Amino acid sequence: MSVSFGIYIGCSSCCIAVHKDGKSEVVANAAGDRVTPALVAYHDTEVVTGLAAKQGMIRHAGRTIQGVLRDAGASEDEVVGQSGGGGTCKAMWEEGRGARYLVQRGEKTINVTPEDVLTHIFTLLKDIASAHTSESELPVVVCLPGWSGEGAVTSVRKAATRAAFSVMATITHPAAAVLAYGLADDNQRNLNVVVIHCGGATVSGGVVEVAGGLITTKEAITSTITAGDSITDILVQHFAKEFYAKYKGDPLENRRSRRKLYNAAENCKHVLSTMSTAQVYVESLWEGVDFSTTLSRARFDGLVGPALATFLTPARDAVQRCSLPLTQVHKVILTGGSAKIPRLQQLAGETFPNATVLCSLAPDEVLATGAATEAALLLARPAPPAANSPATPPSSTVPALATSVFCLVSEGDGAGGECTQRSTKTEGAECVFSRGTPTHARRTLTLPLPSPTPPQCRIIVFEAPDDSCLSQDTATTPLLEDNVLAQIDLTSLTPDSKQLRLDFHLKSDGSLHVALQESAAKINRSFVVESGRS
């Protein structure tokens, strides 16, 4: 089986990606949209999901359920403290059974569980997935917000299974974002990555350390004070004031006109993410009066600028909790629909001045892409042992390097010479495996020889706590003998010898096997660094 899927589901939207022919790509729904609203509406004779449910909210808000992920597995206090957004159906608490929705369908009132609602959403995504594979089994990895509790994860797994998906795993936002951009493929150095998710209902900031393919979420903070819906609300208030100034009427006085204006404001927000101006038109907004206006991106930035600044607060707090200076963040990944706003991307770059802000992928498609990548990795794992084979007990620990491993080529000072503080500096060292690289791992280096080529040179493999020995300020730090793992002297080099090829194999037992080749002098040597040093 070569096709797998990744699904992101949040409070406001959901998205599905397929991994096929070696790449992950988000696929569109029947309407041609790559992101689907995570809404379900119970009409008198049918259940409507996705975009159709959102379009019908003006008439059927009381029978439309959104934000179901918040209610799945929520406690009584959490359910009672929530309100249905935009007049939508509010969850009730039923003793002994958890959150429930009471929905009026014709003359009957039905009892709907969050798991039922999630099943409708996954069924819609299953129909999308079925168009991209001929297999009956649909292997999937689901990406969920980091704040999702055990109850929510269980409900999501059950709903996906009921919709005919085969759930292999669930992952969180930070891990999915790192996988989507392929940052786990770099084992030359450790990366500190900040992932900022700007959803409709929540904004979260996470700190991830990537070391040798190992992804570790060090901290994650979620805020509900300001989110994507808050930006839309600011625009709604702005347009309502403009309408009142023109027509002396308040479009917020009834639910229908308020919903119309909200939809127009949300569309305006998305248009200004890619265009310099947006035309806003609402037919019969208030007492038959149409509303038309234009909003520029500059005016938009001025209106929402203070709110956008608060989007970065969870990320800054997460970095602070990790005792990590802002200048030591290497990458920033923006995800979520509101992350498409150019002003927010600019603020992220200013907050983390030494980091590269990654937004080449559509921010609202990143998480599904990362989940599909994880699904492909899980699908490629070896098959489980046969029933009569001894089972290997599961483990939550991963053996990894405690220090980074480097390789250095220097001119030799005589065969058999010892490495001392006076003889060797770390200038020109190349990182082989960064701290945290899990076993087992492989790496091949092609290192240039000194020019002009000396008759002999020395290959030194050494360890260090981090990659500080590669920086400009400390490149001449003396190499201590206690840090040296192996030292090989090469003789009989010829003037045609220009470079060395070294194949490093870090085995699961912690030993490091190195094969060294130089074609001009026909050198072919190998050596082993036993485990226990690093």
Quick overview of this protein structure:
The chain has 534 residues and is α+β, with helices and mostly antiparallel strands. It has helices at residues 51-55, 57-60, 68-71, 76-80, 114-130, 150-162, 173-180, 228-247, 255-271, 297-311, 313-321, 342-351, 366-379; strands at residues 4-9, 13-20, 23-26, 36-37, 39-42, 47-49, 64-66, 92-94, 98-105, 108-112, 138-144, 165-172, 191-198, 203-211, 214-223, 277-286, 289-296, 331-335, 356-358, 404-411, 430-433, 441-448, 457-464, 484-490, 499-506, 512-518, 523-529. The protein has three domains: 4-172, ATPase, nucleotide binding domain (Nucleotidyltransferase, domain 5, 2-Layer Sandwich); 185-360, ATPase, substrate binding domain, subdomain 4 (Actin, Chain A, domain 4); 404-529, Substrate Binding Domain Of DNAk, Chain A, domain 1.
